[in-house]
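Task: sequence design from structure.
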């Protein structure tokens, strides 16, 4: 067996890593394009049908639902600085909104968390003041936060054109449904009491 020079071995490893990273990115881009094309070709579901939404670029989750990507963090900051203008969230996917909501909870940013709830009058269950007061009196952490940190890629299931839920895997093949709803502006928001 011939001895391999360390510099040649290092160069081969670096080159192999670069090729692998480029190939992986190309595969992800091609997969996203195929998913978008196949989704567009499918018929629109009726209100009684469920439709799986394939994850797109802004739905990618890394390190669980509690970790915001740079884009998501920028969106969170833009939402804050806009004084909670829903139009800032117009292009955000349901998963992104759920991650912003969980991030606000983890940061004890109760005002932002409240603003991520559905805001159409027929769906509002309590006021901002009630929400803030409840958070002051109940200092216990959400027991599900560690669970969300373990969830890498929940599916979003449409139950109608403007409603759906994140299907979050749980123990024994069960799942938790995290309820979402589009408001009158077409922005995805978190339903009050999203897990029931």
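Answer:
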């Amino acid at each position: 067996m011939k001895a391999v020079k360390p510099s040649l071995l290092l160069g081969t490893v670096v080159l192999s890593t670069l090729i692998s990273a480029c190939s992986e990115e190309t595969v992800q881009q091609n997969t996203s394009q195929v998913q978008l094309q196949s989704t567009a070709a499918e018929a629109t579901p009726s209100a009684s049908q469920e439709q799986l939404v394939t994850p797109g670029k802004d739905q990618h989750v890394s390190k669980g639902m509690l970790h915001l990507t740079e884009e998501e963090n920028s969106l969170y900051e833009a939402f804050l600085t806009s004084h909670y203008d829903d139009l800032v969230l117009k292009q955000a996917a349901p998963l992104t909104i759920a991650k912003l909501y969980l991030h606000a909870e983890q940061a004890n940013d109760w005002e932002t968390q409240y603003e991520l709830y559905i805001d159409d009058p027929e769906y509002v269950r309590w006021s901002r003041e009630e929400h803030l007061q409840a958070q002051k009196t109940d200092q216990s952490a959400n027991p599900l936060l560690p669970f969300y940190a373990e969830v890498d890629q929940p599916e979003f299931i449409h139950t109608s054109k403007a409603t759906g839920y994140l299907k979050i895997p749980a123990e024994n093949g069960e799942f938790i449904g995290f309820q979402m709803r589009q408001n009158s502006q077409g922005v995805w928001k978190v339903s009050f009491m999203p897990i029931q």
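The longest strand covers residues 175-182.
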